[in-house]
Amino acid sequence: MKFRRAKSIYISIKNEEICIQNFLRNKIISITLQELSLILAMEHWVDVEHLTTTLKDKISEEDIINSIYKLIICGVILTEDTQEEDINYQKTWDWGLKAGAYHFSLKNTQFFSRNSEGMKVFSDKITLKTIEDPSPVLFSLNKDKYDKVYSYAVPAFDEGIFKTIKRRRTIRSFDLEKPLSQVELTTCLYAGLGILKFRSIPPMGEMPIKMTPSGGARNPFDAYMQCRNITDLPNGLYHYSGVEHSLGLVNNQSSPSAASILGEQLWIDDAAVIIFLVANFDRTMWKYSHPVGYKAVMLEAGHIAQNIILAANELGFYGSPTAAVMSSRFEEMMEEKNMNKSCVYAVALGYAMENAEELI
Predict the structure, then answer these.
(1) CB burial class (10 A; 0-12, 13-18, 19+) of residue 15?
(2) Which CATH architecture group holds 167-350?
(3) How sure is the predictor about 186, in pLDDT bands with cuts at 50, 70 and 90?
(4) What is the pLDDT of residues 281-301, one digit of tens each?
(5) Whose CB has fewer CB within 10 Å in the chain, the N or C terminal residue?
(6) pLDDT score of 57
């Protein structure tokens, strides 16, 4: 049997230990200097006999075999039977190790539920930190910093789009008895993802133009909706087409719940609909091979979500965003796994309870 090291690994030093991780599998282990030598010798396919000869002055054959077994389990070392994911990564991910390590390591972050022991520990930590190391000031001033300061009257945001912007707030209490209409839902979707027209940009051809900015007009986002309380629309998972302005039923599954996908935030399950913003990295990666393209995609999620939320406010209901996404559970709901597609943001929409508290 032959072995090689995975391409999706990085090494760090923590507490005087050498740590190695295959970020596609999100497993971290500590290794010895001998094991590091073994890993370095496995850039290409090799067998135990080759390793024994190459490392005969550093590691015994027995230690080589034991280390290989350990490293295979955590995905650092691959066999021909376990290389499929690694090959897919090499073929499809153009943004390199740094962006790859960041993205794939965070895809399945475990979030604390509200009443969990982990959340209690976090809350106690913030309470103590507030006393011992107070938060930095959350705004900045010009006064006393610059010699010339020009001051203005605060604008009156009482009409038109400014009134809508001013009243934007997030809530956590949705009214289960008040559904959204299909028109209300699709209006919000059109505000964020609707394609207004196409513009010819040589040599690439016709590029989609939306109401939200998109780096290079690459339009990397799709929206999927878990519809739970939309008038005359069967519950299920839908896909929105911004060019057709249509909803396509992906499946009628009600599980996993939105809360289980979005950090165990139970309030989300009371929303009329949850919009999942799914990045298709291939669209941006095709033009921009530099990892800064990844940053541009992440920023675009915020542009889209803000338009969706403002449209909801204009129509008299609320949009509440969250980035606490566990991608593997979303993929379970989608019944699809694609390395270069990832749910990175979500917006819950619905009418507020009568006495709902407006938050940030």
Answers:
(1) exposed
(2) 3-Layer(aba) Sandwich (3.40)
(3) very high
(4) 999 999 999 999 999 999 999
(5) C
(6) 86
**pLDDT recorded at residue 170:** 92
Identify the three-state secondary structure at position 33: helix
What is the reported pTM?
A: 0.93
Fold of domain 4-92: Outer Surface Protein A; domain 3 (3.90.930)
Per-domain boundaries in the chain: 4-92, 167-350
- 19-44 burial, b at 16+ Cβ within 10 Å, e below that, comes to ebbbbbbeeebebeeebebbbebbee
- CA gap 308, 225 in Å, rounded: 13
Average model confidence (pLDDT) across the chain: 94
Phi/psi at 256 (nearest 5 deg)? -70, 160
Tokens matching residue 232:
């005359």
Long-range contacts of 294-302 (CB under 8 A, 24+ apart): 294/95, 294/99, 294/102, 294/103, 296/215, 296/216, 297/215, 297/220, 297/221, 297/344, 298/344, 299/215, 300/212, 300/213, 300/214, 300/215, 300/220, 300/221, 301/221, 301/277, 301/344, 301/345, 302/345
Give me the amino acid identity at 78: L
